[in-house]
Amino acid sequence: MLLRKVKSEGLAHLSYLIGSKGHAAVIDPRRDCEVYLEIARENDMVISHILETHRNEDYVTGSMELQALTGARVMHGDLDFGYGERIVDGQEIRLGSVTLRAISTPGHTVESMCYGVIDREGGPDMVAVFTGDTLFVGGVGRTDLYGDQRLDEMSARQYDSLFGRLLELDDGTIILPAHGAGSACGSSIASREDSTIGMEKAQNPALQVDRKEEFIALKRSESLEKPYYFERMEEINLQGQPVLGHLPVAPPVAAEDAWAARGESVIVDVRSPSSYAAAHIPGSISLPLDILPHYGGWIIPYDRPILLVVEGPEQLDPAIRALVRTGYDHIAGHIGGGMVAWYEVALASSSFPVWSARSVREEGAEDLFFLDIRMEKERREARAEGSHHIFVGHLPSRIDEVPKDRKVVILCSTGTRGSLAASILEMHGRRPVNLLGGMTGWARAGLPTTSDIR
């Protein structure tokens, strides 16, 4: 039996290829799917099946892309998909000496499906289970995707799926989830990616409940942001994803042409926060590479072509892949020569100050507005006294809460998301100051903090 995990950074997405004796299946493929073809070729396998654990909401699935390249059957749970075919509880798929058995596990979504793995050469028992977004290492999937009115219902269904189906498997069964730490599809997902049913029974906080009502109350208490782009992903993944055939190329665009097109295009700068603060194109959005996959969908409009600003050519491929995975197909190009070329033709540029926590001490707080742009659950743990809270994804719609007549000191964890917030603030006529080191530096400098955790 061959089992390979494919990890997509940023979205913390985990997909898998499993196969035996020349036949393989891919579980929850990503859209840039050449990696699965390479694994199959290296192991003399043909991809015959593509299995979806659920209608994904945080990325565009690669099922139709991979099907176009392989002719494989796409299979998913019982929902009105515009492509593929339904698989039902208990149905089995044979891949050489491996059997995959469908396990219906509604809760995260109504049609969520897990897939048990039986290696028939080793015996009749399940050795592993692809758990999708039902069960993570250290957490479980969110149940709020259908709104508050169905939260209790979906939480109850997830409880039944967990305690009545998955936790009934042998303790030694390996779990293979669809996401790792950092995903927006669950809370408190552990940083390690390896676990078993038995380990999760013993250690997973969401499973340490005695009754269904207790589990529902736990799910009610979660504070998870739902990115705006989730609804778009849900629609695309239900109707069927556009087949690209290949990744967009993003050719070089002359600085003068980029300047002329700035009203029609959106300029996305993926350079580091310090590079962006020092000099950037007015009106551009700062989305450093490590947050682009997770935060791009909050901010970048889908109806305009994208021009990229990069430090160097090595940033192009990861930026394009991150955008394509979240449904941004119209990438018009990148600014050839980057900011150096921009300076050479004397086009307008902008900058804003970057401070350390020590600078805050020296400046004094009287004329400053402290803006905490982290998630609510982060803020509960520790926050600057007197700070105002607007999550960065909500900043454009709540910009009127931020004054124009004071410097706005941005607080996040370390300063990376702060660069995104600064670009939004500047776009709306505010005076941003990005605090490098964020709340980590704030606390170490001994500046006043408070917490909801006692």
Describe what this molecule looks like in 3D:
Strands 1-2-3-4-5-6 form a six-stranded mixed β-sheet, with helices on one face. Strands 7-8-9-10-11 form a five-stranded mixed β-sheet, with no helix packed on it. It has a five-stranded parallel β-sheet with strand order 12-16-15-13-14. By secondary structure, it is an alpha/beta fold. The chain has three domains: about 1-240, Metallo-beta-lactamase, Chain A (4-Layer Sandwich), CATH 3.60.15.10; about 250-345, Rhodanese-like domain (Oxidized Rhodanese, domain 1); about 355-450, 3-Layer(aba) Sandwich (Oxidized Rhodanese, domain 1), CATH 3.40.250. It is about 30% helix and about 20% strand.
Summarize the structure.
The chain contains 15 helices and 23 strands. By secondary structure, it is an alpha/beta fold.
